[in-house]
Amino acid sequence: MKLLDTEIRVKENLMFSLTRFRLWWALFLATVVFDYLTTINFVSVDGIEMEANRVVRALMSAMGVYLGLLFAKCLQVIAVLAFASLHKRAGNIFLFFVIFLNVWAVIINTL
Question: Is 46 in a helix, a strand, or coil?
Fold first, then answer.
């Protein structure tokens, strides 16, 4: 794939990330699951309108709580996969950042 006159090896970058940073990817998937579960719990107690993320709130309103949140989490996974495919190192910084955000969301959801 060519982007801004630079050849990007998407598959190679993604495979590098998935093999070199296996623990980070496992941690990322675990935080996605925990964020999903704590958000379901949080929303069932306080209601959809208390969700701070407008996109997630809109998806949950339109598609239902479970399916809307699942779709939002799938979009998050796709975004991280896309960034990891663009660059070997920068994608993994993004992966770490999203892990941090998910852990933060789990903490906020459980308070």
Answer: helix
93-106: per-residue pLDDT in tens?
A: 999 999 999 999 99
Handedness of CA 10, 15, 17, 20 (dihedral sign): negative
Q: pTM (2 decimals)?
A: 0.89
Buried b (16+ CB within 10 A) or exposed e, 92-111: bebbeebbeebeebbeebee
CB atoms within 10 A of CB 8: 13
> Distance between CA 8 and CA 23 in Å, rounded?
24
- Give the C-alpha separation, 98 to 28, whole Å: 8
